[in-house]
Specification:
With 327 residues, the chain is an alpha/beta fold. It has two domains: 130 residues, Rossmann fold, CATH 3.40.50; 181 residues, NAD(P)-binding Rossmann-like Domain (Rossmann fold, 3-Layer(aba) Sandwich). It is built from 13 helices and twelve strands. The strands form two sheets. It has a seven-stranded parallel beta sheet, with helices on both faces. Strands 2-1-3-4-5 form a five-stranded parallel beta sheet. Helix 1 packs parallel to helix 12 and helix 5 packs across helix 7. It is globular. It binds glyoxylic acid. Glyoxylic acid binds next to loops. The site of glyoxylic acid (GLV) has 7 residues, from loops.
Length: 327
């Protein structure tokens, strides 16, 4: 019997490819850029399974191009790039990669928080530019992280992992959204209304998924509530923050700084005004980017794809409703 065909939209770690190779014909889009829309549609047209990345918009048009698709195995924990309702309507299970990237993503969020608080990147640029002449009593004075108040927007898996790190730094931790009381209490965090979190926090770290409710959650009104010394960290999805409002807040000194792993759009245009601000640190969506974690994500996505191709429940499925319809 012919093997099923899977379309992978970029080269991924071999941990994923190796699992698939024995069971599937594997088409890997060579990259390094994502497939164009036409290339995506052409790839899907021949595929029984697709393993996309968060750069691919998997919508009704893509599903129409591949009516034979049996599974979508996103190699990401977030799945806002996929029209899950449209996949569910067609009975196609959608997989994601939760859990394996939690600690790695929290490490990165904390790295950004520390970097923005203590001017790590401008400091390094200053040395590299040959400008370091002497120890200076007032050079690159930053903000203390220890003892400061951290506001976590979305105390889910990654938010909780950030809270664990923050405890080690002796921070006071507030949160809004996304946790059961037991987990929150175990972490010594306090649930507060969103406005209070913004008003009280020295650092606000965003960990909420992107959906209709969280789109531009951090808007002009939210930024206005924050302290002028506050630092915003976003490692979730760019569109949770309104970039125009953020530019206004950073350039007018309404808040002190931002550190972004994610942007809207992504990547930003090279002339995006945020990139011209000294108090805005932007890195290229590296949250889960460790060797070990990307290998685990690739393997998890491959397992999801294989289960879908065998007609079994995906180990990590975001639209369990497809099975209810079948049962
Ligand atoms: C990364 O942003 C992911 O959702 O896995």
């Amino acid at each position: 019997m012919a093997k099923p065909r899977i379309f992978i939209t970029r080269p991924i770690p071999s941990a994923g490819i190796d699992l698939l190779q024995d069971h599937c014909e594997v088409d890997v889009f060579p990259g390094p850029a994502p497939p164009s829309r036409a290339e995506l549609l052409a790839g899907v047209a021949k595929a029984d399974a697709i393993l996309p990345l968060l750069t691919e918009r998997i919508d009704e048009e893509v599903l129409r191009a591949g009516p034979q698709l049996r599974v979508i195995a996103n190699m990401a924990v977030g799945y806002d790039n996929i029209d899950v309702a449209a996949a569910t309507a067609r009975g196609i299970p959608v997989g994601n990669t939760p859990g394996v990237l939690t600690e790695t993503s929290a490490d990165l969020a904390f790295a950004l928080l520390l970097a923005a608080a203590r001017h790590i990147v401008p400091g390094a640029d200053y040395v590299r530019a040959g400008r370091w002449q002497t120890w200076e009593p007032q050079l690159f004075l930053g903000q203390d992280v220890h003892g400061a108040t951290l506001g976590i927007v979305g105390l889910g898996r990654i938010g909780q992992a950030v809270a664990r790190r923050a405890r080690g730094f002796g921070m006071r931790i507030l949160f809004h959204g996304g946790s059961d009381q037991t987990a929150a209490e175990a972490l010594g965090t306090r649930r507060v209304p969103f406005a209070e979190l913004l008003q009280q926090s020295d650092f606000v770290s965003v960990h909420t998924p992107l959906n209709a409710e969280t789109h531009h959650l951090i808007d002009a009104a939210a930024l206005q509530r924050m302290k002028p010394t506050a630092i915003l960290v976003n490692t979730a999805r760019g569109a949770v923050v309104d970039p125009v409002a953020l530019y206004e807040a950073l350039s007018s000194g309404q808040i002190a700084a931002a550190a972004l792993d994610v942007t809207e759009p992504e990547p930003p245009a090279t002339d995006d005004p945020l990139l011209g601000l000294a108090n805005c640190l932007v890195i290229p969506h590296l949250g889960s980017a460790s060797v070990a974690t990307r290998a685990k994500m690739a393997a998890m996505a491959a397992e999801n794809a294989l289960a879908g191709l065998r007609g079994e429940r995906l180990p990590h499925c975001v639209n369990e409703a497809v099975y209810e319809a079948r049962d």
